[in-house]
Design goal:
Blueprint (H helix, E strand, L loop, with lengths): L1 H36 L16 H8 L5 E6 L10 H15 L3 E6 L5 H7 L6 E6 L2 E5 L4 H12 L4 E6 L16 H9 L2 E6 L13 E5 L7 H12 L4 E4 L9 H6 L2 E4 L2 E3 L1 H5 L6 E4 L1 E2 L12 E4 L3 E4 L6 E8 L4 E3 L15 E2 L2 E11 L2 E8 L15 H12 L22 H31 L1
Parallel strand pairs: 1-2, 5-6, 5-7, 7-8, 8-19
Antiparallel strand pairs: 1-3, 3-4, 9-14, 10-16, 11-13, 12-15, 15-18, 16-17, 18-19
Keywords: Membrane, Transmembrane, Transmembrane helix
Protein name: ABC-type uncharacterized transport system involved in gliding motility, auxiliary component
Pfam families: ABC_transp_aux (PF09822), DUF7088 (PF23357)
Length: 451
């Protein structure tokens, strides 16, 4: 009986073992199949640095066709070591989102003729090609790489011209009031900026993406204004930055757009709470528009003026920015104590930016008027998210509102600052207390074993 019971138990044990092994093999095969057919990943690194931002993914989705990346890198870099592995890991982030991003390595030391033919001069430089267009990149980060892809995604050349000849803010100027840094960012984002002097040019080119008028300091001649009005009449796009100065002969343009530019400076008491001048209007309330879609950031508009649009059958207008919900438009000079006068001042909220559209020859004409040229000036461009807002303005005016500017994700502060008392505790704990504990425990264990 015991023999039979022992055989039965052995048989059952064997049967259960075989079943467990087969089940394990099935689970392993199933996991292998799922891993082959399904891609799932979680980025648990700080600030998500091992994955792409949603903005980069959206740019990749707009690239219909393969992207070729040719990296001219030696097998070992003097400073960075295995630079090929660094490039491979970086490009892999893009290949996960777009499998037809192809990476090829060429050793410039072994094939110098290929590097010379490609115009490459830096070890590790990448040449990115899309639709027979190419861009060069010498740095490895998401902002730079995605901006290259954005430039390649633009259809044709996008030209932005800035009016000059009347003391306007220059797109290539380095003075505090100029727009030089903004102009350089336009270049990074795939736009080509040029100056336009209406005295020298017979007409405003019809093939430009956008004309910028930035705070002229001298009156335009009647002939120049006539050229501007003809440009608007033919459907040209315009970004008009209006400061507190007189319109300098541009009143006919304001009348053409049905604008009322009320004198006075916007006063925003919230700015004083943030240790900013009270004449800095803080933008946080935005209208529903492609320019401000998903734009949930603070913008700063120094010395802004109110923009009012008279309703008309010609233009459709949408408010872009409203400021000073608890402020007002100060009508008096700013060299005295600023206070609200209900008899003279206009209470907030104040509209300081507006977008105008109309249909001209089956095409949408786009115009933006902003009551502050200072917000894009070199001095104030770094305040808030002024740069992002400015790039969004140009993208929309150029018809590329589906392309956005990729800004670097904020890096969390990794520094560890300890007080003097905490440092003392750490030193005493690690250098005195812990060694003594180990010594006492060792003596105790030796004493127990000796007994």
């Amino acid at each position: 009986m015991n023999i039979i019971g022992g055989k039965l138990r052995s048989h059952l044990l064997l049967k259960n073992s075989v079943f467990a092994i087969l089940l394990l093999l099935f689970l392993v095969a199933l996991l292998g199949y799922l891993a082959l057919k399904t891609r799932v990943q979680w980025d648990v690194s700080q600030n998500g640095r091992n994955s792409l931002s949603q903005a980069s993914i959206e740019i990749l989705e707009k690239l219909n066709g393969p992207v070729k990346v040719t990296a001219y890198a030696t097998k070992q870099h003097v400073e960075f070591g295995d630079i090929r592995q660094i490039i491979s890991n970086f490009v892999l982030l893009y290949q996960r989102a777009k499998p037809d991003v192809m990476l090829t390595f060429i050793d410039p030391a072994e094939r110098p003729e290929l590097a010379k033919a490609a115009g490459v001069s830096v070890n590790g430089e990448m040449v990115i090609t899309f639709n027979d267009r190419r861009e060069y990149l010498t740095v490895i980060n998401e902002q730079a790489f995605t901006n290259v892809l954005m430039r390649l995604a633009r259809s044709g050349e996008k030209r932005v011209m800035g009016l000059t000849g009347h003391g306007e803010r220059k797109l290539d100027g380095d003075a505090n009031h100029d727009l030089g840094e903004f102009g350089r960012q336009l270049l990074v984002n795939g736009f080509k900026s040029q100056a336009l002097n209406l005295v020298m040019e017979p007409d405003i080119p019809s093939d430009i993406s956008t004309l910028i008028i930035a705070s002229p300091q001298a009156d335009l001649m009647e002939g120049e204004v006539a050229k501007l009005l003809a440009y608007i009449e033919q459907g040209g796009n315009l970004l008009w930055l209006v400061d507190q100065e007189p319109l300098r002969g541009l009143l006919p343009l304001a009348e053409k757009l049905h604008l009322m530019l009320i004198p006075g400076v916007v006063v925003d008491p919230r700015a004083k709470q943030l240790n900013a001048p009270i004449t800095f209007a803080l933008g946080a309330s935005y209208g529903r528009h492609p320019i401000t879609d998903h734009f949930d950031y603070i913008t700063v508009f120094p010395f802004a003026r109110q923009i009012t649009v008279n309703e008309s059958d010609d233009w459709k207008n949408i408010s872009l920015v409203e400021v000073a919900q608890h402020g007002w438009v100060e009508s008096d000079e700013l060299d005295h104590d600023i206070s609200f006068d209900p008899m003279r001042d206009v209470a907030g909220p104040i509209r300081i930016a507006v977008a105008l559209t109309r249909i001209v020859e089956d095409r949408e004409q786009r115009i933006v008027v902003v009551g502050s040229g200072h917000f894009l000036a070199n001095t104030y461009l770094g305040n808030g998210n002024n740069l992002d807002f400015g790039i969004n303005l140009i993208n929309w005016l150029a018809g590329d509102e589906n392309l956005i500017a990729i800004q670097p994700r904020a890096t969390h502060d990794r520094s560890l600052v300890l007080s003097e008392s905490m440092l003392t505790v750490l030193v005493v704990g690690f250098l005195i207390v812990l060694p003594l504990l180990f010594l006492v425990s060792g003596i105790y264990i030796w004493w127990r074993r000796s007994r």
